[in-house]
Specification:
heterodimer; A: about 325 residues; Rossmann fold; 5-stranded parallel beta sheet; two-stranded antiparallel ribbon; 12 helices; about 10% strand; B: about 325 residues; 13 helices; about 20% strand
Chain lengths: ~325, ~325
């Protein structure tokens, strides 16, 4: 047998160093937008924000195989990283944080992080949990019916898997072998309720067997591992092999929302332990090992992203508020 | 014109719409092989194929949720809830999702969805095959609720519902299905959503009703004319929400007396809203207090014939007597 130099993990996935840098920058962007949003909340300029810190690995990893302009995205409220990957800009994110008229998701009607944009193929979401799961199945049904080469992906937390809609959506998708990927960002808590009180099993992915399609567990702190799982699922969907359930084991470093106090249900030691597996740190280490980015380069990107976030905040804060006279608009389609 | 029953009019209208627009899909329990429990889609599995006539899992929230997804992605789904009594698991999908999607997305997304649901009692359906659900859903902005009472209105309103860019709950009173027959135009005519209709002209009092109750009102009105020479105008609400206030007010202002009749539980029913609207808008045009006749406030219609009858008509010839009393107030 001949020997050869082992291919890099990202090379085996078909990812170039440029791809890795773009993924890294998006993860950093999500983190810095998150931290800045919470500061805006504490400054009294944003009534309510939803943290993402800790989820960047699973979000960027599972969002990255998706094709902008073709595929369809159904994120849930923690999916800042997913919508950045879908093409939402920091300025647009902060238009939502400040509930401005040009907020692409809702024009300031919904709480921040209730994403939506027809232009980007991001389907509008609500606050009730798991209601988007049957929508994902219906959209995937429609895209196949219309002969499109589209993959629909749907993200949700571990708590969502207890809802009836979650079962009904996955079941329909399984019966019809639809081109859809279900991504569970399992951060061990539904607000305060731990996984042990949410379900009697260790892996959400096991539930896929009940719907007749594969389930896979990925390490949420490993962005490339999440990418690999999603790439397989995305390929399966495009090849007509049906849905996949991906469970990313992740952790949220901050409270559920700006109104939550996670000290009432998690020890600081537990949170600190998980911070040792920060998906951004893990990825930066990987990039250094493979000589894609060194610490100096990482610091430079942090500075550049911070500048972009600061500029987005200033511009969004100065944007127009919704006009009170629009309160009754869009209850029904308006006559043209 | 062809004489049809309500169920045949619905069947023909839906069939013809599906035949001319392949964006229209029918999904629900037993709609495929069985052709629907009321035989609306009999034979359509062969005609339109299983991608357009979908036997779904037995899960109402999933049926509506999946249909919302289809509607968000270019299709015009018609979701069938086998009996309106079973729609409640889908309440969240209808209210939190379908009805709010246009508003919450600031007009970016719309849900052109029709949900058909056979409702109403008087057919020995008991507690869970007799319910009236219109008031529960008419309270929800962003959702249109229609309830035809004649074959022609059923066909015309169904076409309008399918062509509507927003979600429409299309309620079909089961007792009208085969009991009510009428002339239906052979063209693809529509009846606009949001317009009430004067089904019988009159001068002495106005009776406002819808669904099967409308036919009980028409029967009482005809007998009052014959027996007492009392002229009753009967207004068919047709669209519960958005309510056609103008047609109802015009009629009541012309007769100065109003009786509102509905099968649903009296308290907080659609007739309560109609009565409140009349009290607010037409008080000084009235010669008598508004009379409201609704079902009793019991959980639902019982199975045993005497109990079911007591729900529908607590005293003999109730409508006739109440109209007579109102006319002579």
């Amino acid at each position: 047998m001949s020997t050869r130099v082992a291919e890099t993990p990202h090379g085996a996935l078909g990812l170039t160093p440029e791809d890795l840098l773009a993924m890294h920058r998006t993860m950093v962007m999500a983190r810095l937008i998150d931290e800045a949003s919470l500061r805006q909340n504490r400054m009294g300029r944003a009534p309510f924000v939803v943290p993402v810190s800790g989820h960047e690995g699973c979000q960027i990893g599972t969002a990255w195989p998706m094709r902008r302009g073709t595929d369809i995205w159904l994120p849930y409220y923690r999916d800042l990283g997913v919508v950045l990957a879908a093409g939402m800009t920091p300025y647009e994110i902060f238009l939502g944080v400040f509930a401005k008229a040009d907020d692409p998701s809702s024009g300031g009607r919904q709480m921040p992080a209730h994403w939506g944009s027809r232009r980007l193929g991001v389907i509008t979401g609500s606050s009730p949990i798991a209601t988007q799961i049957p929508h994902a199945a219906g959209i995937a049904y429609a895209s196949r019916y219309r002969g499109e080469d589209a993959v629909t992906a749907c993200w949700f937390g571990d708590g969502a898997t207890s809802e009836g809609d979650w079962h009904e959506g996955l079941n329909f998708a399984g019966v019809h072998r639809l081109p859809v990927v279900f991504v569970c960002e399992n951060n061990e808590y539904a607000i305060s309720v731990p996984q042990s009180k949410q379900m009697a099993i260790r892996d959400v992915a096991d539930r896929a067997a009940g719907y007749g399609f594969p389930g896979e567990v990925a390490d949420g702190s490993d962005v490339l591992g999440c990418y690999a799982a999603m790439k397989r699922a995305h390929d399966r969907a495009r090849e007509g092999e049906g849905p996949t359930l991906i469970e990313c084991k992740t952790y949220r470093f901050l409270p559920h929302t700006s109104d939550d106090d996670d000290k009432t249900y998690r020890s600081r030691e537990e949170v600190e332990e998980h911070r040792h597996h920060d998906p951004i740190d893990v990825f930066v280490e990987y990039l250094a090992q493979h000589e894609v980015l060194d610490q100096t380069g990482h610091d430079a990107i942090l500075r550049g992203v911070k500048t972009e976030v600061d500029e987005a905040i200033i511009a969004a804060w100065e944007a127009a508020d919704p006009d009170p006279r629009t309160l009754a608009d869009h209850v029904f389609e308006e006559p043209r | 014109m062809t004489e049809k029953s309500v169920v045949t009019a619905i069947r023909d209208a839906l069939h013809d719409e599906m035949a001319q627009d392949d964006r229209i899909l029918l999904l629900g329990e037993d709609v495929g092989t069985r052709g629907g429990v009321f035989r609306i889609s009999q034979g359509w599995l062969d005609e339109f194929g299983e991608s357009r006539v979908i036997d779904t899992p037995l899960a109402e929230s999933g049926i509506v949720g999946v249909a919302i997804g289809m509607a968000l992605h270019g299709l015009l789904p018609v979701a069938e809830i086998e009996f309106a009594d079973f729609i409640h698991p889908a309440f969240d999908q209808i209210v939190s999702e379908a009805a709010r999607i246009r508003y919450r997305s600031n007009g970016d997304f719309g849900v052109p969805l029709v949900i058909r649901a056979p409702c109403g009692g008087g057919i020995h359906g008991a507690l869970y095959h007799s319910q009236s659900i219109e008031a529960t859903y008419a309270h929800v902005p962003g959702l249109k609720v229609v309830m035809p009472s004649t074959p022609a209105d059923a066909a015309g309103l169904l076409r309008s519902a399918i062509r509507d860019p927003d979600p429409v709950l299309f309620l079909e009173h089961k007792r009208t299905y085969r009991a009510i027959k009428g002339e239906v135009p052979d063209t693809a005519f529509t009846v606009p959503i949001g317009l009430a209709d004067v089904k019988r002209e009159g001068t002495d009092l106005t009776c406002v009703s819808y669904g099967y109750s409308l036919h009980r009102c028409l029967d009482a009105a005809a007998r009052l004319q014959a027996d007492e020479g009392i002229s009753v105008e009967v207004v068919d609400v047709r669209t519960i929400s958005p309510l056609d206030r103008g047609t109802i007010l015009d009629s009541v202002r012309s007769t100065s007396r109003a009786i509102v009749v509905y099968e649903d539980n009296r308290t907080f029913g659609a007739g309560a809203e109609i009565s409140a609207m009349l009290a607010e808008e037409a008080l000084f045009d009235l010669d008598a207090p508004i009379v409201r006749v609704g079902g009793p406030d019991v959980p639902a219609m019982p199975f045993a014939a005497p109990l079911e009858h007591a729900f529908l008509e607590p005293e003999p010839d109730e409508l006739y007597r109440k109209m007579l009393k109102l006319a002579s107030f």
